[in-house]
Design a protein that fits this description.
Layout lengths: L2 H11 L2 H6 L10 E8 L4 E9 L8 E7 L6 H16 L5 E7 L10 H4 L8 E4 L11 H10 L5 H15 L3 H18 L5 H8 L3 H30 L1
Parallel strand pairs: 3-4, 4-5
Antiparallel strand pairs: 1-2, 2-3
Helix pairs in contact: 1-7, 5-6, 6-7, 7-9
Length: 236
């Protein structure tokens, strides 16, 4: 399960989470739409764009990117994608890149060629392994912490997250969406575990087990597709 899909769902359910991470009022989320935006020149989609409502021209655009691996070309690619977005849509407002790193050691230096073009302080960096105790408690923050928590602590944390979900959301559809997100994170954290092992490890009920089975089937299909592509590449 790719982390970008997890985070896209996370920000769909908890749009206020971005502003909490940036130390701003969570109420700002009411004036933004979280979107996946097409970049025609690249036949590519930017999956993490927070676009302010038209009646708030002074609010900036936020471009959110999640990075869980070392990539020396990351800044080259990300900044280029932002510039292409600006060229295509020509927004009359400021913009702010936000990068969520799994840990600080993965962060690479902003290329020298960009340093005179960009105000380095405007690039917001979040390191998930450092957020504990840095923000007021919330379900969104707890889910972020769960993504990077050690596998030994994960089972206990899951039960707490499910309890928080039922306490915070009355709507059953929202509850289901959040719990399915938690299950996707479980599969991401334990890719080698079988369904039976995960059921035992996390004390899953029949209701949650049904959705976990579905999520695992999708994950297995994605892995098979990737293996097929790799095999085709080798044969060529």
């Amino acid at each position: 399960m790719k982390t970008d899909k997890i985070f896209y769902t996370l920000f769909q359910v908890f749009p206020e989470l971005l502003f909490q991470l940036l130390g701003q009022s969570q109420n700002l989320a009411q004036n933004y739409q979280f979107k996946s935006v097409e970049i025609k020149e690249l036949a590519f989609r930017l999956d993490g764009v927070f676009i302010p409502d038209a009646d708030h021209p002074d609010y900036p655009l936020y471009f959110v990117e999640v990075q869980f691996q070392k990539d020396e070309d990351f800044y080259w690619r990300f900044i280029t994608q932002i510039f292409l977005y600006l060229k295509q849509y020509k927004p009359e407002r400021t913009c702010c890149p936000v990068i969520i790193w799994e840990r600080r050691s993965l962060d690479t230096r902003l290329p020298l060629a960009y340093q005179n073009l960009l105000n380095l302080e405007q690039i917001q960096r979040i390191y998930l392994d450092e957020i504990e105790g840095e923000y007021p408690p919330s379900l969104g923050i707890s889910i972020l912490q769960f993504i990077v928590i050690s596998t030994k602590k994960a089972p206990k944390q899951v039960q707490s997250l499910i309890e928080q979900t039922h306490q915070q959301f009355v709507d059953p559809n929202t509850q289901r969406n959040v719990i399915e997100l938690i299950e996707k994170i479980i599969i991401y954290k334990f890719p080698q575990k079988s369904r039976q092992e995960l059921e035992a490890m996390f004390n899953l009920t029949e209701w949650k087990r049904e959705h976990l089975t579905y999520a695992m089937s999708i994950n297995a299909y994605s892995r098979q597709q990737l293996e097929n592509l790799q095999l085709d590449h080798k044969e060529k």
